[in-house]
Amino acid sequence: MINWKYCIIGAALVVVVGMIFKRVEYGAFIGIFIPGVIVGYLVNNGYKNGAKNGIITGLIGGFILGIIIFITIDFNLPPFPNVVYYIFMFALFSAATSAILDAIGGIIGSLVKDKKAGSAYDDSSTAAVSGNEKGMINWRFSIIGAVLVVVLGVLQFYLIGFDLIWGTLVSGIVVGYLVNNGFKNGIINGFIAGLIGGLLLGILFYFVYIIVLHTSNSDISSPLQLVLFFLGMAVIFSFLGTLGGLVGSLIKKISKKMNSIIVHDIKNLTICS
């Protein structure tokens, strides 16, 4: 069920919060994600409806945000009518990205709203294991994920520069898939992997580029700036790890359902033959 009132409210928040957060590097992604969580929380009707309403929120808000961002970018816009095409394509890309982020945000918001263990699952086949899913931290997989964050982060840094998003997301997905114990545990363990990995990467880069190489153009020159630097690393990487953990648990859930369907079909074919 689509709740258009909350979707419109969420879309407006995507535009407003996205424009505010875009002043910070990668901040627009956080600004887009937060309204999805809010919409999923307000809808309060299971994670599937949280995802559906998050997608609608992201499509509407992301499209409008894309138009505003493109026309306010500080460079010479192409001449008319080409500019219409570029604005439209950028808005479509923004809408697609926002839909993905807000779908994940909608699921997280609905899980936060749902306080009963296992009630986020709407099918009886998973209800039996829901009692074992509450708040379990698998430190082995979380540490493996943190190590992956560091390794992939270093590789990304030397291959494509200081763009560490995808390595952290991949690490979170791996952790969420390996934990194999529901959305909540995928989120929790992905969060821990991103948090630890982000702090370790921050320490590594700080030690190498500021202590060893004495980088002169660094903005980190006071204890307060150092604290803010590590705080930023912790927040950004734990956020990315959380998203990855949720995606990994979703992939695992889908693969389980597909396997059960295949096994059921094989049994039916065997019985018929």
Tell me what the structure shows:
- With 273 residues, the chain is an all-alpha fold.
- It has two domains: 4-115, no CATH class; 129-272, no CATH class.
- The protein has eight helices and no strands.
- The two termini are 42 Å apart.
- The model is unreliable at 119-134 (pLDDT under 50).
In short:
The chain has 273 residues and is an all-alpha fold. 77% of the residues lie in helices and 0% in strands.
Q: Sheet with the most strands? A: none
Mean pLDDT: 75
Number of structurally distinct domains: 2
In DSSP terms, counting alpha (H) and pi (I) runs of 4 or more, how many helices? 8
Distance between the termini: 42 Å
Low-confidence stretches: 119-134
Topology:
Blueprint: H1 4-21, H2 27-43, H3 47-72, H4 82-113, H5 139-160, H6 165-179, H7 183-212, H8 223-272
Helix pairs in contact: 1-2, 1-3, 2-3, 2-4, 3-4, 5-6, 5-7, 6-7, 6-8, 7-8
Q: Which descriptors apply to this entry?
A:
273 residues; mainly alpha; 2 domains; 8 helices
